[in-house]
Design goal:
mainly alpha, 172 residues, 70% helix
Length: 172
């Protein structure tokens, strides 16, 4: 908490340290929303810049993490809207990452096939360890709505893993 107060007071090193601690979870969250490496880097850069510029507006240092994730999600949504208005000339297929942990790959694959509202609650709650109330704050929805989305997402994930063909279209 002291480090957030230092960052609010203008300590650049404190802000950098806070961002380093959140960089990986922020990136994973951006990746789950945007699905493109280049877009994730842009979203992270814009998020960090916006957070730095407006850290003085953070009222409660205890909610720094929630506040930064809210900025990231807003930035990702802004990028998605901008992309939706443009017509892509051609897109390259996603290159699968090589990992020894195949269960995580399967889980990420399954989560990536969920609709955005369900995918983001799974990512924030399970991958970023946010409590339901905090997920609700980040997404600006009630804790009950978070529970509903999690329930529906878990049912779809369960279906995904019980389907022997693991067809991505089934998870939607």
């Amino acid at each position: 908490m002291d480090i957030v107060v230092k960052a609010q007071a203008g300590d650049r090193e404190a802000f950098i340290q806070l961002m380093r601690e959140l960089e990986s979870p922020l990136y994973r969250t951006a990746r789950s929303i945007l699905k493109q490496e280049e877009d994730c880097a842009d979203a992270l850069q814009e998020t960090m810049l916006n957070a730095f510029k407006s850290i003085h507006s953070l009222r409660e240092p205890a909610f720094f993490k929630t506040w930064v994730f809210r900025i990231l999600i807003n930035e990702c949504n802004k990028m998605l809207k901008k992309k939706a208005r443009s017509v892509p000339y051609g897109e390259l297929p996603d290159v699968p990452t090589v990992s020894a942990d195949y269960e995580k790959i399967d889980l990420w694959e399954a989560v990536s096939h969920l609709e955005e509202g369900q995918r983001i609650v799974i990512v924030l709650h399970y991958f970023q360890d946010m409590p339901l109330s905090q997920v609700g704050e980040v997404l600006d929805i009630s804790a009950e709505a978070v529970k509903t989305r999690l329930h529906r997402a878990r049912k779809k994930l369960q279906h995904f893993f019980s389907n022997p063909s693991r067809n991505g279209a089934e998870a939607r």
